[in-house]
Amino acid sequence: MKKLKICFISTNPTFLGGATMFLYNLIKYSKKIKHNAVEFTWIYQGKENKKYKKDKINFIEIKDTKFYLLNEFLFNFKILEFLKKNSYDIINSHTEGFWINFYKKKNNQKIIHTFHGNRYYFNKNHYGRLNLMQKGLLLILLGTNWIVDRPSKNVKKLICVSEKVKRQIEKLYGKKENIVVIRTGVDLKNFKQRNKNKIKEKLNFDKKKIYGLYVGRGGYWTKGLDRVIKISEGIYNLNKNYRLIVIGADLKKVGHLLNKKFIIYIEQGKRKILPYYYNSSDISFCMSRYEGGAPTLVTSEAMASGCLVVCSKDSEQEIIKDEENGLIVEEFGKKSAEKILEILNDKKKKEKIIKDSMKTVKKLSLEKWGRKYLEVLLK
Question: Where are the domains of the chain?
Fold first, then answer.
C-alpha cells in the first residue's frame, strides 16, 4: 500500500519548545493509530544543509543566515525550491507560510497552516521597553511580520492553538471561513499525579520544603522569568522553606537573575525526567507577557501533574479561571506571594483547585487532541 506523505515545516527538532513537542506528540499519536501508513518529513532552519533520518522521520535542515529579517524571506524561498523538487500529499506549515503565496500546488495536494501564536503581536509586546531607535526598527519588523504571516488563499485550513490566536489573525487579516481552533493536547499517561514525597526523595529534594517551578527555554522577558523570580522572592521572604526550580533558561542570558539563595537552576533536564519535576513541585508558574497557546504545553503538563498553576493575566491562559482551576495574578510582588501562600496553606481550597485543574486538562488528552488534529489534516 502506498504511504501517505506528510511534510511538516517547523522549528528545530532539537529545541524542545512547545511547537517542537507539538509535532513530536502528533507524530507519536499518528503512528499509534495509523501504524506505518504515513511517512513524515520535517523541514527546519539550522546551521547547515543536511538530510538525515531518525525515529523513522525524514529531517531536512536548511541553512539559515545571520541576519534575522533576511532569514524571514530566504528560508521561505528555500522551502519553495525544495517543495518544487519533492512531492507530498499534505504540507503542514508551523512557522513560515509566506512561500505558499508563490507555490504551485500539485494535484490533490493539501496545504494546512498552523498558528502557534502571532509574531506581529509577539513582537509588538516589546514596544514599551524599547528606546526611540529600537521602536523604529520594531515598526519595520512588524511590517515584515504582517507580510510574512498573511494567510494565503492556497491554504485549505488554518489551525489556531487558541481562541486568542484566532482573534488576532482575524483582527489583522479579516474573518476567515477556513479557520479552526484546536487546543494543544497533553500526554496524560506521562504527565500525571504521583506521590509528591516519593518523587522529592527520588530527586533528592527536601520533603519539608515548598517548591515552585519555571520551565522555559525561550526569551526570559517574554516568558516572564523576571516576574517569577520577583514573586518567588516575595514567597521566600514570607517562608524560608520555599525554593524555585528553574529549568531550561539560558544561563548566559539570565545568570544575573538567578543569583538568589532560593533558586535551584537546572540547565536542561532530559525530557523523560521532566514529569518528576512537575510532581515534586507545589506551584508551576506561567508569567509570560505573551503566549499563543492557551494553555501552553507547560501549563497543561503542570495541570495534569497536580501542580497549583499560577498564571499572569497577560499570558491569557484561556482555560484557567482564577481560584477555580488555577490562580491569575496581575501584580508580581508581595501581594501575589501572599495570595499564593494563602491558597497553599488552605488545604481544602488548594485540593479543590488542583482537582478542578486536572478535570479541565483531561479534555485536552493527547488522544482527543490528536484525533481532532488528524481529522483536519487527513479529511
Answer: 4-181, 196-364
